[in-house]
Amino acid sequence: xxxxxxxxxxxxxxxxxxxxxxxxxxxxxxxxxxxxxxxxxxxxxxxxxxxxxxxxxxxxxxxxxxxxxxxxxxxxxxxxxxxxxxxxxx
Length: 90
Known about the structure:
Blueprint: H1 2-7, E1 14-25, E2 28-38, E3 45-56, E4 59-69, H2 73-86
Antiparallel strand pairs: 1-2, 2-3, 3-4
């Protein structure tokens, strides 16, 4: 991601992230959260993300990156499920 920003492939003028889960499983770390991003400043997208990081040759690298716009119905359903699990209604 940083490489794409540096090369100008991605040109974010706004990137705000909120991390909800950072969990390590041996040499892999799961990072989940939400973000607000804009490339031109006029349209702000709200997205959910899940990234998997792994140490390769002494450096942490993203091995899987998944994003979904938060207006997606599956995201809304996932939030409802998350709230139910948080209060023990699973």
